[in-house]
Amino acid sequence: MDAVVMQEFGGPDVLRWQSVPDPKADPGWVTVELRAAALNWHDVLVRQGKYSSPLPHILGADGAGIRTDTGEEVLVLPSLWWGDREAAPGARWEILGDHQRGTYAELVRVPKDCVAPKPRGLTWEQAAALPLVGLTTYRALFTRGRLRAGENLLVLGAGGGVATMAVMLAAAVGARVTVTSSSTSKIEQARELGAANGVLYTDPHWPDAARRLSPHGQGFDLVLDSVGTWEQSVTALRPGGRLVVLGASRSERTTLDVRPFYFGQYELIGTTMGSPHDFAGLLRLLDAETVPPLPISAVFPLAEAAAAHKYLEQGSGFGKIVLSHS
Q: pLDDT at position 318, please?
């Protein structure tokens, strides 16, 4: 098969198009003939060597295609070997594309419980964009964050995949969503997907500006922070509010004042990815509610994965970046 392979860690140009052996058909595994794969920031970290992937290696966590043994149209669940506890993954857990060959290829092999029916009405590109960001966001909002209808949610970083998915899922269940962004155009795009309003995080006083948009200026029930600005995020919470953290794209270290935190009765909740149970919950929600497909920022041919990574790292798009296998 043809695939995008990296022989070394580094920048986007380490991703090269070449032929590799087809995956083996082992018991308990299934092979999917991919129609599309989607990029995630996690792919950049794998490419840079942050997860000590074996070399040579094929990136990619997200994909959708045809199951070769049954002919079914399926999504690939990128959360491998979650384990028996819903509270947290087990010791064997990993993300597809970390150590197992990923979806930047014509074929991918995954454990048989890591495929699910492709949702009706989605294109291949829209379907491929869903699994990782949809699963991660569903768990963050509902399993871990306990978001309910009528609550007020602040989502940091409008335009990114998690933030975009969060706006759509939260609005679908009746939550009121405010976003932060670096541009007014991304805030407006988030409003079109269901956000009520937004603030620019380029303003150093953005937490205060966001609080003023919450009911009676008291702060938010839940803040979803995928960028790592915990100190500012906590100040946007109402007393007793919940901060769900799931990324560190802007900051990997933070400082919190202890006394204001416990006097505020806040919760700090970590999460990442999700279980097969979470994935089933996501698909049920999508089937029950009117949730639009994730916006697609750009589509590149699979062979141009390096160019797609450069586009991703620019951070200028709104929505997902997809590799087409057609």
A: 81
Instruction: Please say whether the beta carbons of 322 and 125 come within 8 A.
Output: yes
Residues near 221 by beta carbon (within 8 Å), at least 6 away in sequence: 147, 151, 152, 153, 237, 238, 241, 242
Tokens of 168: 């759509």
Cβ–Cβ contacts within 10 Å for residue 13, how many?
A: 11
What b-and-e string marks burial along 247-271, b requiring 16 or more CB atoms within 10 Å of the CB?
bebeeeeeeeeeeebeebebbeeeb
How does pLDDT run across 274-303, given as a tens digit for each residue?
A: 999 999 999 999 988 889 899 999 999 999
d(CA 189, CA 69): 41
Q: What is the 3-state secondary structure (H, E, C) of the chain?
A: CEEEEECCCCCHHHEEEEECCCCCCCCCEEEEEEEEEECCHHHHHHHCCCCCCCCCECCCCEEEEEECCCCCEEEECCEECCCCCCCCCCCCCEECCCCCCCCCECEEEEEHHHEEECCCCCCHHHHHHCHHHHHHHHHHHHHHCCCCCCCEEEECCECEHHHHHHHHHHHHCCCEEEEEECCHHHHHHHHHCCCCEEEECCCCCHHHHHHHCCHHHCCEEEEEECCCCHHHHHHCEEEEEEEEECCCCCCCCCCCCHHHHHHCCCEEEECCCCCHHHHHHHHHHHHHCCCCCCCEEEEEEHHHHHHHHHHHHHCCCCCEEEEECC
Q: What is the pTM of this model?
A: 0.94
